[in-house]
Structure formats: structure tokens, C-alpha cells
Specification:
Elements lengths: L4 H28 L6 H12 L4 E4 L6 H11 L4 E5 L6 H5 E6 L4 E6 L6 E5 L6 H13 L1 E4 L2 E4 L5 E6 L12 H4 L4 E4 L5 H13 L16 H12 L5 H16 L3 E3 L3 H17 L7 H12 L4 E2 L1 H6 L3 H11 L6
Parallel strand pairs: 1-8, 1-9, 2-5, 5-8
Antiparallel strand pairs: 3-4, 6-7, 10-11
Helix pairs in contact: 1-2, 1-8, 2-10, 8-10, 9-10, 9-11, 10-11, 11-13
């Protein structure tokens, strides 16, 4: 009796998908032990990591953004760097610079904090455009050029940038080119009353009021994260799903109330995020629901509302939700 090679390959891929899904969910549950009440945020950050994307996190201070990144880095044994963006921060403070060594009489490269696996760019909109632009190359190419030499960052590599929606004084708006390079924009909000009580109980029981980060287990290595990324890219995407993604993104360009719609990079980001979400959900193919789930996080920062809607205080999420309702999803 002969085995069909195609069937054997499909079964092998399905088995790998199940293992990858179990691994991703173990990561989720491990971080949830420390960061309480932010389950949706943890899931979206993990989706971006699996989809080789970057995340822009918006929320008031003190909601656990740094804790989330440190927990994620510890879970896969990765390196973590944090840069506090300020008006006087220089590009070389992020990427690194060449320095003359007097003893050796030669220039040597001093690598900056961007040479890591997870880079937390805290309050990114407090730095001037020149410093913000220093992240463009590293986000797109995964490399940094110093004095004409290109250096690879760590692998996997992800930028998690935070911005404060409240204190707009002394901030610089992010350039459109940089906004477009963030796969997802995540809004982090206050936890519920029960979650806040649980968090306070947990923190007060720790020595010196810590968050229990030392209890997080290292579940996998950076190489395993790269495997997760490769498996997610193999998840089946039907032609109808491709067309649905394009229709949704193109709808933003002609929709009433949107002054500037999303570009082609939005299609790529949305599909990659939907694939990663399918992997976490243990699906071997992308469904319309996977696309719908990731549509608002992947598009909310890529559209510009008309002045009339902005004055009325209408959020981009409301418009995007209307698009989801109006654009027909594949039914088969």
C-alpha cells in the first residue's frame, strides 16, 4: 500500500500547526499570569510577533506596557531593551554610533539598544522627527546602518512603541511613513474592577511589591519563535479571503468621512495578522472571522478622518466597524 505524498505532507503540516498553536497559547497563558486584565492586548502583541510585525500601543501610563514586553521577552529567552524617547534624544542614542578608540587608534562601532529582540520605544511621540525616522530602517529591514556599514538586529525582532493620548503638549506627531510600518495599533485601557483587585492582591503578596516577573517560565527559545513565524506563513489562504482583504482595504479609500485611506501595506499587514490569529485559534486556514478580528487593529492608524468627523469626535474605530458591516464577507 502506497502513501500519497501530498496527503502525508498535509498531515505533517497539520500536526506542526497544532503544536505551534499549543505553544502560542502556552505563551499567552504564561504572560496572563503576570499581566492581569489585559488579555486582548497580550493576544494582539503575540499575533504581531508571530506575523513579523511591530506594534504601536496607545494608553495612559501605568497600565503594564513595560511589564508586557519584559514578560514576553522572558517567555522566549529573548533580549529586551527600553528607550525613553525625549525631545533631546538623538538617532545615535537608539541605533548606536562609531567611536574613536585612542588606544587602538581606530574607530569602533558601539551598538545601541536597538540591537535586541524586543525594543520598547516608550513615548515615541516625544522625540523629534529625526530620531523617530531612525527607526524606519530597523523596522522595515531588520538592520541598522552605522558609518556606511549594515548590521543585523536580533532575530526575531519587534518594536513596541508607546504613545500617550492624554498629554499632547510637547509631542511630535508620528510621520505617516512610520505609522504605516506598525502592523497593529493596540489601545490599552484600564482593567476591570475585579481584575484591578486581583492585581493589587497579587502585587501586595509579592516581596517588595513586585509583579512576580521572576515566576515567568522560559517556555521556548528565539529559534522556536522563528519557527512559529514560518508555520504561520504556511497557513492556507483561499482566493476569496484574498479578495475580501483587498475589498476591505480599498473601501477605506472611497468611504465617506475618510480623507485618506489605507495603502497597499495595509493589505499585507491585515493578511499576515489574520494568519497569525488563525494559528493561535488552531485553524489550518484563514477564515473571514480571522480577518474581521484583525481589521480594526491593523487599520485604525492608517486612515485619516475628514475634519468634519474629527471635530465631532467620531473615532476611526466606528468608521472601520461600519465598513466591516457593509463589505460582504465570503460565505463558503
Amino acid at each position: 500500500m502506497t502513501t500519497n505524498p501530498a496527503t502525508s505532507a498535509d498531515e505533517n503540516l497539520q500536526q506542526r500547526l497544532q503544536q505551534a498553536s499549543a505553544l502560542a497559547n502556552n505563551l499567552l497563558n504564561e504572560i496572563k499570569r503576570v499581566l492581569i486584565g489585559q488579555d486582548a492586548i497580550i493576544e494582539q502583541v503575540l499575533i504581531a510577533l508571530i506575523a513579523r510585525g511591530h506594534v504601536l500601543i496607545e494608553g495612559v501610563p501605568g497600565l503594564g506596557k513595560t511589564l508586557l514586553v519584559r514578560s514576553l521577552a522572558k517567555c522566549f529567552g529573548g533580549q529586551f531593551s527600553r528607550v525613553q524617547f525625549t525631545p533631546d534624544l538623538m538617532p545615535s542614542d537608539v541605533t548606536g554610533h562609531a567611536m574613536f578608540n585612542m588606544a587602538k587608534q581606530e574607530f569602533e562601532i558601539r551598538k545601541g539598544p536597538a540591537f535586541t529582540n524586543l525594543l520598547l520605544a516608550d513615548e515615541i511621540n516625544r522625540a523629534p522627527a529625526k530620531t523617530q525616522a531612525a527607526l524606519l530602517e530597523v523596522m522595515q529591514e531588520g538592520q541598522i546602518t552605522i558609518e556606511g556599514q549594515s548590521f543585523k538586529t536580533g532575530e526575531p525582532f519587534m518594536v513596541l512603541a508607546t504613545q500617550n493620548p492624554v498629554e499632547q503638549e510637547g509631542t511630535y506627531p508620528l510621520p505617516e511613513a512610520e505609522l504605516d510600518r506598525f502592523m497593529l495599533k493596540v489601545i490599552i485601557d484600564y482593567p476591570s474592577e475585579n481584575d484591578e483587585q486581583l492585581m493589587l492582591r497579587q502585587v501586595s503578596s509579592q516581596a517588595q511589591g513586585g509583579f512576580g516577573l521572576e515566576h515567568i517560565r522560559t517556555l521556548l527559545k528565539p529559534a522556536h519563535v522563528l519557527n512559529l513565524q514560518k508555520i504561520a506563513e504556511q497557513i492556507t489562504v483561499d482566493e476569496q479571503i484574498l479578495q475580501y482583504v483587498v475589498k476591505l482595504v480599498r473601501a477605506t479609500r472611497s468611504w465617506s468621512g475618510i480623507a485618506r485611506g489605507a495603502g497597499p501595506r495595509a493589505c499585507i499587514a491585515l493578511l499576515a495578522a489574520a494568519r497569525a490569529y488563525a494559528l493561535i485559534s488552531n485553524n489550518t486556514f484563514v477564515t473571514p472571522d480571522d480577518v474581521k478580528k484583525m481589521f480594526i487593529p491593523a487599520l485604525r492608524h492608517r486612515i485619516l478622518l475628514s475634519p468634519e468627523l474629527a471635530i465631532e469626535g467620531i473615532a476611526a474605530e466606528r468608521i472601520l466597524h461600519n465598513i466591516l458591516l457593509q463589505v460582504d464577507a465570503p460565505r463558503d
